[in-house]
Design brief:
Layout: E1 11-20, E2 23-33, E3 38-42, H1 49-56, E4 64-69, E5 72-73, H2 78-84, E6 85-88, H3 100-110, H4 115-128, H5 144-154, E7 162-166, H6 174-189, E8 193-197, H7 201-207, E9 210-215, E10 218-223, H8 225-231, E11 236-240, H9 244-254, E12 258-262, E13 267-271, H10 277-292, E14 299-303, H11 307-314, E15 326-327
Parallel strand pairs: 3-8, 3-9, 6-7, 7-8, 10-15
Antiparallel strand pairs: 1-2, 1-4, 4-5, 9-10, 11-13, 11-14, 12-13
Length: about 325
């Protein structure tokens, strides 16, 4: 049965402001994250991501606004907030000279676990993160991916309900990145709430239930990856032809249906009017029209809007006026 406290949002931010001198780093930010969700916080460098995380983690005081973690106020109840959170930064905090087991045992002791409980918990985490075979080795012998997994395990010694992950897979190779993603998914399956800051848009797309984009200290868009992609445009059909002559003929035939033309790749795009069955009928009609007219097709496909499209459009330096908040769930 849920208690009144557990039924509250894990993260609740209202009217958050923070300035450094004349520069307003966070400008009236509102944000809410439910328990068990993954929130990806995206934004260009200097947008305010790190400042927000530091405030949420009680490492920095806001100028104004209300911030609650698990129902507890970060200003007035910081000790209760700290019990709720684990933090894994960009740089691994583990000791190279110690073994994986010794590192986690040390973190357990720092969290006031008994030696026996710390060793037991360390062993559990090494197994959960696929590091049990390497637990007796010095961390300096670990690969980058293994170190990141160990660092994440260290932030979970006391199984906090909320974990902050700052660029968790930066500098990892694709294989190690996917291993860490799987570890994060296991955390969420077990009920942990995750706030993820990342510049890897594929990472946000893969892991996040909700994405918030921050720019110049303001949340400019918030919603699921699918909802945000839908805001920037409809899918497009891409048709590539083998010659410049065929491209000119295709453009002439398609007329107003041709949305953009890439002369370097000899590709013409047609905006899809419908995302369902009618959309595929439209694609077939385009292909049929071209083949009936004798225009050869080298390849064709469907390109959906990506998070990169969303990010580039919403955070463009050339944008004069930004929406206060574009909400979509």
């Amino acid at each position: 049965m849920l208690t009144a406290q557990s039924a509250l949002p894990m993260i609740s931010v209202t009217g958050l402001c923070k300035s450094y001198g004349p520069t307003r780093v966070l400008d009236d930010v509102d944000l809410e994250v439910q328990s068990g969700q993954v929130l990806a916080l995206l934004g260009p460098n200097g947008a305010g991501k790190t400042t927000m995380v530091r405030i949420l983690a009680t490492l920095l005081k806001p100028d104004s606004g209300e911030v609650r973690i698990g129902g507890y106020d970060v200003l007035h109840e910081p000790k209760k907030v700290r019990v709720q959170i684990g933090l894994s930064g960009q740089l691994a905090s583990v000791d190279d000279k110690l073994t994986g087991l010794d590192n986690l045992t040390m973190f357990g002791r720092l969290q006031r676990l008994s030696h026996r409980d710390a060793v037991t918990r360390a062993g559990q985490l090494l197994e959960e993160f696929g590091l049990d075979a390497a637990g007796g080795r010095a961390v300096k012998t670990y690969s980058g991916g293994m170190r990141r997994r160990l660092d994440l395990a260290a932030s979970l010694i006391v199984a906090p309900p909320l974990v902050f992950l700052d660029e968790p897979t930066s500098s990892l190779d694709p294989s190690a990145r996917h291993v860490l993603w799987d570890a994060i998914r296991v955390l969420v399956t077990n009920g942990t709430t995750v706030l993820l800051t990342t510049h890897d848009l594929d990472e946000a797309d893969q892991l996040a239930d909700v994405i918030a984009i921050i720019d110049r200290g303001r949340i400019i868009a918030r919603g699921s990856a699918a909802a945000l992609k839908a805001q920037v445009g409809r899918p497009r059909f891409l048709v590539t032809v083998p010659t410049s002559h065929a491209l000119a003929a295709a453009v002439s035939l398609l007329g107003d249906r041709a949305s953009t033309v890439d002369y370097d790749t000899r590709t013409v795009s047609v905006i899809c009017d419908d995302r369902g069955v009618d959309g595929f009928r439209q694609l077939r009609a385009v292909v049929d029209d071209l083949t009936t007219s004798g225009i050869p097709i080298e390849e064709f496909g469907l390109r959906k809007p990506t998070l990169d499209d969303v990010f580039q459009q919403l955070t463009s330096a050339d944008t004069v006026a930004m929406p206060r908040v574009a909400r979509s769930q």
